[in-house]
Amino acid sequence: MSTEEREYWTKQVRAAQRTELENAQKVAGNWKTLVGALTGLFATAAFAGGKLTLDKLDDPWAWGLRVATVVALAAGALSTWWLAQASGLSLAVVENQSWIARRDASREKALAVQRLITQGKHAGLLAAAIVLLGSVLTLMVPAATAPAKKPPEVLVVTEAGLLCGTLGVTGPTVTVEGRAVASASSVTVVDSCG
Amino acid sequence: MSQERQWPDQAASYEEPTTSDSNRVLWQEAVDSALNDGTLTLEPAGSRTQALKGTCPRCGHQWTESVDVYFEVLGSGYDVGADGGGGDRGDRGDRPRRQGRTLEGWYNVPCSCGEDHADRPSSVDSGCGWSHDLAIRLADKASA
Question: Is the whole model's pTM more than 0.80, yes or no?
Answer without folding.
Answer: no
